Automatic annotation (TrEMBL), chains A, B:
Molecular function via GO: isomerase activity
Protein name: Sugar phosphate isomerase/epimerase
InterPro entries associated with the record: IolE/XylAMocC-like, Xyl_isomerase-like_sf, Xyl_isomerase-like_TIM-brl
Domain Xylose isomerase-like TIM barrel intervals: 42-282
Gene3D superfamilies assigned to the protein according to its UniProt record, in alphabetical order: Divalent-metal-dependent TIM barrel enzymes
Pfam families for the chain: AP_endonuc_2 (PF01261)
Lineage: Bacteria, Bacillati, Actinomycetota, Actinomycetes, Kitasatosporales
Domain of life: Bacteria
Organism: Streptomyces aidingensis
Alphabetical UniProt keywords: Isomerase
Length: 292, 292
């Protein structure tokens, strides 16, 4: 779309229809405070944001909800709940309490989607299957609670390089297997390009997720190497890596009846070191250029 | 077995029957020159080594072959051929030439197995499927050439975190799909715990690989976090991470008619900084303790 729209010549602008799909995840420009983020979105014509619990809590959940609502911004997701894999009963109870709080926050913010990072292996354990079952147990407790508040849970499969310490759900197929135990309006999945791009079973997984009505969130980040130490904060700006964003968008669009909002969620030290509004503009432009 | 064998009290020793399965991959103790490695193996009762092309070439291929043969050591594999994914015809021809040389070296060294790291995405490409087809094309050229020299090609699926820059074959299923286009005595797979441990389709993949007679190499390394920058040299010593080595060994044993040798292949800066013979002893001990 950028090729045919004059407003794109100097950057993504209000006029580009592709921007109607764009949502900026707060973490991408975490150097911006919430008011600056909201102002930047309004000026650029970015219609939606994905929020994170910690900065929202710092600002105040009710105040944050008012700020984005008054600006007319949609909240496409809240990140994140999860970390369900502990064996210790006290730790499990605390995790469930924390997730109930996250569900309340999502409802207050007016988003229908809470993203879940399910948790890694407990210390000393190598039991992936057991950890996945504990995730299912937690979902069984939380999904009805969330549904009563108008919030859907979205299981995010994380790249297998995070399987031991962050998330034992490593593929879309695994996430769908877990989600499939619950009604689609209660539990679905996140399609995040960064985590899933390498998987040759992806096309059929996306089709299945769409057919089941379980694509509750769609996020973009590019894959660039070398990976940094700890492999957390090396997600590439859209277009800088090897992920075919257009392929993903077309597959998701083909699998869903209504076009979904698309979040760009980048954890990237180099982007965080730059001016936040400049990064926001660049990200909107890259989104339009590489996704449509 | 370590619990019932007196020779293990102070370290892995000649008497432990589990050691009969052990092969030390040269890269694990790359600080040792080949003569020191061979001497250490002889003294400890380690019956086999996995070799790498570069240090063998430095020593001289024929001389290396004589050294290990005279010491009575088996050579369980040569690492590595591969890097088949280039599009440029000249680059492809050079890769094939280099792999033919690797096959000759494997034959000279008396090993029946050449390990293949298949290659990542060419610069600017996001076409995983195309890259995998170019691997199949290369295998079609090389497999008969290798078979004539008594060498089997072993496709190593690498962890998905290497999919862009080292190997677009990321799962055992993918490796078996590629290998399955060729006779099992020509093309098989490597089962490496470091790359495969996270995959919930692994048990059936190992069973299938064994039933097809395609487990041409079995390698161990443990998974530890945080991963280092570049994610190459952070493989954990056996027992230091979350991989259940006994599970792997039992699955592979159940899938194969004859017990296979088991290589320990660690890329680990901390191990490389230590005395090589001490690391060799420790690795043999860990192998016996955690694999049997």
């Amino acid at each position: 779309m950028s090729d045919t729209n004059g407003t794109m010549s100097g950057g993504a602008g209000n006029g580009d229809p592709a921007l109607a799909r764009f949502s900026i995840n707060q973490m991408t420009v975490k150097q911006l405070g919430l008011p600056a983020l909201v102002k930047g979105c309004t000026e650029l014509g970015v219609p939606a944001v994905g929020l994170w619990r910690e900065p929202v809590q710092t600002y105040g959940v009710a105040a944050a909800a008012r700020l984005v609502r008054d600006a007319g911004l949609a909240v496409t997701s809240l990140c994140r709940g999860g970390f369900f894999t502990a064996v210790d009963p006290g730790e499990r109870a605390r995790a469930l309490d924390d997730n109930r709080a996250a569900i309340e926050e999502a409802a207050t913010l007016g988003t229908g989607t809470l993203v879940l990072v399910s948790g890694g292996l407990p210390p000393g354990s190598g039991d992936l299957a057991g950890a996945r079952e504990r995730i299912a147990d937690a979902l069984a407790e939380l999904a009805p609670y969330a549904a009563e508040r108008g919030v859907r849970l979205a299981i995010e499969p994380l790249h297998p390089m995070y399987a031991s310490d962050r998330c034992v759900v490593s593929t879309l197929d695994q996430a769908l297997e877990l989600a499939g135990r619950f009604p689609a309006e209660q539990v679905g999945v996140v399609i995040d390009t960064y985590h899933l791009w390498w998987d040759d079973r992806l096309a059929q997984g996306i089709a299945r997720a769409g057919a089941e009505g379980r694509i509750h969130s769609f996020q973009l980040a590019d894959w660039v190497t070398p990976l940094p130490e700890g492999v957390l904060n090396g997600r590439g700006q859209i277009g800088d890596g090897c992920v075919d964003m257009r392929w993903f968008r077309q597959r998701v669009d083909a699998a869903t009846a209504t076009p979904l909002p698309i979040e760009v969620e980048l954890f990237n030290e180099a982007l965080w070191a730059r001016d936040g509004l400049e990064v926001l503009r660049e990200t909107a432009l890259r989104f339009v250029q590489h996704t449509f």
